[in-house]
């Protein structure tokens, strides 16, 4: 997808030479995380698998974007995730939102998710993500030995819908995630426990449950294949012509079959996904560039201004021109405009 380059992070977590030397071995084995099934039209269908290290309780890593380990998928481990550079679209379950540097989230087991940065063709965001992953079995076993950890149990349950943190919780969380990345052994585990306590004690106005109590979580290979093929196709062609027939062909399915499985995997129809992602991208252009509204429409895949204005108004609640004139504190939060149906917080 061609777009404006993402914003550089204001925070850095490049580790020292010793850490990078140790990390290099891990990155050489990253391909193990992508198990492939049948190749569909030359594209391998990725399955997320988190390899267990026999001498480590948790998995801590940084990675670039684009990367082989990025993409729409799910895994049984909890994932604490920090974005340190670029802006883009964030998908968790049936939620479509946006992210910027400092985006901190906790994704619960088996909740499909993806972060896609707005980058120029050929551009790479080095060390875009800092990630901590751990299994439910491990954290429950630790709770059995350390009863004080019971205070994080409710927070972990909430994370099955995806948690995005803000305010002081987010910036303290980012600092602690980076500390975890830069440490090893007992010190690293200590930072994780501190992070879980921080999330568990977060004020209600500093976290949001982003996905609905979702009926469409993909549990079968066909749904995962349709979701991954469809989302990859949309992101690769967001500024151009997007057709359901092409997406179905890339998934090696008929259009009705693809539509059924795509909705099962993502919680919404293919056309709704295209519209929401295009309008989310248009808003980022209006916020971060001097492009005219007509240019933003074209860059967002809309060749008809009347249709662009109508779709933007339906999603955001105001026209693109009026939106651009708003002060930043008057603009609707991205998580509100980008998703029609809001899940209850309790």
TrEMBL record:
Residues 228-326 form the HTH araC/xylS-type domain. Residues 325-346 are annotated as: Disordered. CDD domains: cupin_MtlR-like_N. InterPro entries: AraC-bd, AraC_XylS_family_regulators, Homeodomain-like_sf, HTH-like, HTH_AraC, HTH_AraC-typ_CS. Keywords: Activator, DNA-binding, Transcription, Transcription regulation. It holds the Pfam family HTH_18. This is Helix-turn-helix domain-containing protein. The lineage of its organism: Bacteria, Bacillati, Actinomycetota, Actinomycetes, Micrococcales.
